[in-house]
Write a structure and sequence with these properties.
It comes from Pichia membranifaciens NRRL Y-2026. The chain has 496 residues and is of the alpha/beta class. The protein has helices at 75-84, 103-115, 135-149, 167-179, 191-203, 211-215, 218-235, 247-258, 270-273, 308-319, 365-374, 381-395; strands spanning 2-8, 11-12, 24-28, 31-36, 41-47, 52-55, 57-59, 87-90, 93-95, 123-124, 127-129, 153-157, 183-187, 239-241, 263-267, 323-326, 345-346, 349-350, 413-416, 425-426, 445-446, 450-455, 458-462, 467-468. The structure holds dihydropyrimidine-2,4(1H,3H)-dione and zinc ion (2 copies). One zinc ion is lined by residues 61, 63, 329, 331.
């Protein structure tokens, strides 16, 4: 029997095991049909030459074609960059604009955005962002859209005037999500602390990009994380705190997990690799000296933390199991663009508050963690797979098709170079496939990179033979409920 694609001579990695390189993977119609030690033949055969064969990356937190980032990536460039970095599934956000209560219309709009330039290079789903919950909407339109679109996760904010919800609204959302088997993602930063400090900074004309880090202290994340956990505990509902950046906030998650609460944590590359120094105008990493606004390139929220010890604390929580998923939080804006980062520079005066928030990182997420985590011996290949593919697939209801390597699952793979095969290099932005004019990781050294990315049996990235070679064949993913949280005790009758 001949397969559409056969992959062999690589070490298959799952979240639990590394299999011997004698195994052949037989793929037909985009599905893994066989894993066997018998030799297989296929229309196309890929010799992994001893390199790791991992499940395609699942990036469960990316921002694409959002209104608040008009100088960011669209689905074409964002998904192209994803596959060039080993990611085969992304979950961007569909955002409820204020005063729009027809959530079906909201999601329809994002479907149109996804299809605008001929579709996506990788598979994708949507999380909903709820910015204005009304009782009517939560009772009727919300379950309707979750059902129709098979959406099983919602992000909410404790900060930003445009998105911020009160504690009572958060409880309402938690309860609604529990009833609809939807996972809640929370952006946890105390808004009043931030506003208070911001006003002080403004009055003292301390508006350089660096003051962004001062305006959002660790305590703001710490307090809001603890509060979000407390509110989720009232309802006994699964919750993930997104983009966690500091030890004290992660300690709250760790304690909740020890108490067997269904509380999960996400962190992102920027909180492992970058400190607040990058926001300083005289930072030695800035490419063109003399441009004093370049720190704006590193404005994201929560902000980059101050010290190397802060980064180490996040690494520690990634290794010890507190962190559940490692996402990019790809939220890019071009730097040299009037609606991009430079929106915060008016008549030569910097205003960090007006700089669009977020960093590009969809393509560098996996290579960074592979090179500096796996290859440096800080995490095992299995842990890498768990954080970057298996757990996000389980948490967001994709594990019947994505996130691991097994018979019957989608044939999504990232194949890495075997040791010593790839020439190490220093990253420059022109190597990347996003439509952004910088990378925060410029100049960093990479000892490996995805050699092939394969989506449902189609090679979509072949680094040595054409780069992005796939078509925009990405499918919209209908998702199931999370399988990470397990079942909950009966809902408190007063909440029925
Ligand atoms: N939250 C995100 O999730 N991404 C970018 C900025 C933000 O506040
Ligand atoms: Zn956020
Ligand atoms: Zn984000």
């Amino acid at each position: 029997m001949s397969y559409d694609l056969v992959i062999y001579n690589g070490r298959i990695v799952t979240a639990s095991d590394i299999l011997p390189s004698s195994i052949y993977i037989g793929i037909n119609n985009g599905i893994i049909e066989t894993l066997t030690t018998s030799k297989l033949s296929g229309k196309r055969e890929i010799d992994a030459e001893g390199g790791y064969i991992m499940p395609g990356g699942v990036d469960s937190h990316v921002h694409i074609d959002q209104d608040n980032a008009p100088a960011g990536d669209n689905f074409e460039s964002g998904s192209r960059s994803a596959v060039a970095g080993g990611t085969t599934t992304i979950i961007p956000f569909a955002i409820q604009p204020k005063k729009e209560y027809d959530l079906l219309k909201v999601v329809e709009e994002y479907h149109q955005r996804a299809n605008k330039h001929g579709g996506s290079y990788c598979d994708y789903g949507f999380h909903l962002i709820i910015s204005e919950p009304t009782p009517e909407m939560l009772e009727k339109t919300f379950p309707a859209v979750c059902n129709k679109e098979a959406i099983t996760s919602v992000k909410v904010y404790t900060t930003y005037p445009r998105y911020k919800l009160s504690d009572e609204q958060l409880l309402q959302i938690f309860l609604t999500n529990r009833k609809n088997n939807v996972t809640t993602m929370v952006h946890a930063e105390n808004s009043d602390i931030i506003d208070f400090i911001n006003n002080k900074l403004m009055s003292k004309k301390m508006t350089d990009p660096f003051f962004h880090t001062v305006s959002r202290p660790q305590l703001a994340e710490d307090e809001a994380s603890y509060r979000a956990i407390s509110l989720a505990k009232v309802i006994d509902v699964p919750m993930l705190i997104v983009h966690m950046s500091c030890e004290s906030a992660l300690d709250h998650v760790k304690k909740a997990q020890t108490d067997l609460l269904p509380i999960f944590a996400e962190t992102c590359p920027q909180y492992l690799f970058l400190t607040g120094d990058y926001l300083k105008h005289d930072c030695c990493h800035h490419s063109s000296q003399g441009d004093e606004f370049q720190g704006a390139k590193y404005i994201c929220s929560p902000p980059l933390r101050a010290t190397q010890q802060d980064l180490e604390a996040v690494w520690k929580n990634l290794i010890n199991g507190t962190v559940t998923v490692f996402s990019s939080d790809h939220a890019p804006s071009n730097y040299d663009h009037p609606l991009g980062k430079k929106k915060g520079l008016v008549n030569g005066i910097p205003h960090f508050k007006d700089v669009p928030n977020g960093l590009p990182g969809i393509e560098t997420r996996l290579p960074l963690l592979f090179c500096y985590g796996v290859e440096k011996g800080r995490i095992t290949p299995q842990k890498f797979v768990e954080l970057t593919a298996t757990n996000p697939a389980k948490l967001y209801g994709l594990s019947e098709t994505k996130g691991t390597i097994g018979v019957g699952l989608d044939a999504d793979f990232t194949i890495w170079y075997p040791e010593g095969k790839m020439e190490r290099f220093s990253l420059t932005n022109d190597m990347l496939h996003h439509s952004i004019d910088y990378t925060p990781y410029e100049g960093m050294e990479f000892t490996n990179w995805p050699r092939y990315t394969i989506l449902r049996g189609n090679v979509c990235f072949d680094r040595d033979n054409g780069g992005v070679v796939g078509d925009k064949v990405g499918n919209y993913l209908r998702r199931k409920g999370s399988v990470l949280a397990g079942s909950r005790a009966k809902l408190n009758p007063i909440f029925q």
